[in-house]
Amino acid sequence: MNLFEMAKIPLNKAIEVMKLDPSAADIIATPERTLEVSIPVRMDDGTTKVFTGYRSQHSTIMGPAKGGVRYHPGVNMDEVKTLAFWMTCKCAVAGLPYGGGKGGIVVDPSKLSERELEGLTRGFIDRIAPIIGEKMDIPAPDMNTNAKIMGWMMDEFSKIKGQFEPGFVTGKPICLGGSLGRNAATGRGVMVAAGEAIKALGIKPKQATCAVQGFGNVGSWTAKLIHDMGVKIVALSDINGAIHNPKGMNPYDVEKHLQKTGSVVGYKGSKPISNEELLAMDVTILAPCAMELQLTKANAAKVQAKVIVEGANGPTTPDADKILDKKGILVVPDILANGGGVTVSYFEWVQNLYRYFWTEEEVIEKQESLMIYAFKKVYDTAKEHKVNMRTAAYIVALGHLAEAMKYRGMY
Q1: Those residues with Cβ within 8 angstroms of residue 349's Cβ, 6 or more apart along the chain or in another chain
Q2: Contact status, residue 107 vs residue 73, Cβ threshold 8 Å
Q3: Does 232 qualify as catalytic in the annotation?
Q4: How far apart are CA 129 and CA 288, in angstroms?
Q5: Choosing from 102, 224, 232, 306, which is the catalytic residue?
Q6: Alpha-carbon distance 311 to 91, whole Å?
Q7: What is the pLDDT of residues 328-376, one digit of tens each?
Q8: Which of 350, 307, 294 is nearest to 97 (CA)?
């Protein structure tokens, strides 16, 4: 089973529970458009190398497609289609006027010079320019892309269009129309979801412990903001390994250690542990914020957390979901928990359209309000239909999409 087919398993469960019209189900299950492009780049040694890029627009039912662009050697069309599908559902759960999109380039960016990376980025935008724009498809940062790269994208697209086009891309530097609060947005969303989840279980933050897998942008902000909430952070990890301290760790200090040494490993007072030990740790909250497919049939039975809050996209397989359900673990799914990033991307887009910008306090207040509302809607739906939170999130998303399709005369 490929990743895209696996991702549709909880969707099909929701379709069954809510008895969705088969015509609507078929429309939602199929991407509207996929594009593969070749990008020639003149390298520093004078040779030209051709890279492969992808863009998938899963849906424009609710509005323009929205989704990040990742640079990674493992990028492929199946992955991009799946991530675009998740974005459609994520936007629908949050009630945003977007559909789902996703893009990527098959490349290890660490092996390119900055000049080569810029050339690759501009070449990608040149190739996909006919299908993107602030009213069509709005890219954003993802794995191995950042504000600087979004700035290059915005500049290249502006040159193509012959005018300043800040609303075409989000996650930009503040000076080019980026939004305050965007950098921490996904982690803040995970924190809000974690807080609402333990509140639903009657657990106070001061009584809770947390393990975070991954210490990139999402994982580090998740750890810092959950720590600020009063929860004890007892385990953290990055690509080099994991660390544990039952007395708790200050993730702000861990970040300083990472900046000095290149890894969380070796942080004072911590002991090294394996990734499997982190996932199986006896904690209140487990936040997988690294890669997809981390909780599987092979390790789900060992999970001891009371709550799993998915900061990463697709960290839990369907087989693992069944095991976690039987164990009574509350899983806050990715399409709800990590929706904070696209929520603040939406705010950035709105600010760009109006050329009117909000304070960071306004952004945070609006984000947390939307995230809390979405959590409560999904949680109440789970109770109403006697299903888990993942199925409930898809029921909420499908409800919004089906209503829009009906009024658009699509079925």
Answers
A1: 134, 138, 167, 170
A2: yes
A3: no
A4: 34
A5: 102
A6: 15
A7: 999 999 999 999 999 999 999 999 999 999 999 999 999 999 999 999 9
A8: 350
